[in-house]
Automatic annotation (TrEMBL):
This is DUF1343 domain-containing protein. Residues 25-226 form the Peptidoglycan beta-N-acetylmuramidase NamZ N-terminal domain. Residues 230-333 form the Peptidoglycan beta-N-acetylmuramidase NamZ C-terminal domain. Gene3D superfamilies: 3.90.1150.140, Uncharacterised protein PF07075, DUF1343 (3.40.50.12170). InterPro entries: NamZ, NamZ_C, NamZ_N.
Amino acid sequence: MTSNVRTGIDVFLNNIAHRMHGKRIGLITNQTGVTADLEGNIAVFRRLFGEGLCALFSPEHGLYAHVQDRERIGNFIDPESGLPVYSLYGLEESPSDSVLQDLDILLFDIQCVGVRFYTYLTSMSYTLKAAAVQNMPVMILDRPNPITGTRIAGPMIDKCLTSFEGACETPVMHGMTLGELALFLNETSELNACVEVVPMEGWIRSMWYEDTGLAWVSPSPNMPTVDTAVLYPGMCLFEATNLSEGRGTTRPFEQVGAPWIEANRLTTALNARALPGVRFRAAHFLPTFWKLQGTTCHGVQVYVTDREAFEPIMTGLTMIKQILEFWPEDFQW
């Protein structure tokens, strides 16, 4: 597979891996941790470092990114590598002191989606805090921001509303890679961690993910495509409402609806607003799980016609405003 960009793991393997020999390594990852040839990092590191790879850590959705949203995950033994997998979304949300004491370095290799309310960012922040206590170095193998590194939008988080889903003081769309965020948070939050970022080669901030030539590996069950990631900053706002945001369908975050919506009426009104870079189609769907499971929903499917012009957060807020105007008695936060 030919790509225009070399991610942190490929740069690491070519230039830095020799520094790891003799060290006890902990790897924080999920199924997105692959090389340009789509080989998983666990297999690569086991072959390269042998027993030097001592422990695995997994974020929300698990090591295989297959567990649904907000489902807590326990520790287990990875059946292929035989390594212990410590969940960062279970009873503990950061690597424990007792586990870190048996390691020399942590490697972090996960694809994120460029938005504050995605918990991999929180897991990285909590990992930096835990590692700082143990004076343990953390190496971030950087990956692209899939929705470009040029778009910054949405408010900063209200400190009294922070949670695991939104723990970091950034705008909704922060325009940074996880490596850049690690350095930013380490300084602004005074984490005092020993952080080293392995940068990408060939990545340009204006690139959408497809421009990199890299294959998209779903970072969570409801993030199947780059198109989903483009819509996510605005459509995720519907998670806080009584409408379905499309979870439990083949188009999560691409369609929203509820049993009481008049699909054609809403579609006509939204298209009349002529929002930049987007059109709406009347849609009807049946979520198989999550909100409104087993209930036919009526609403809209969102089609991005021009990514450069599209404003996902403004689009999501405008949709909510229109629904409130039409159905104030039915809509609920």
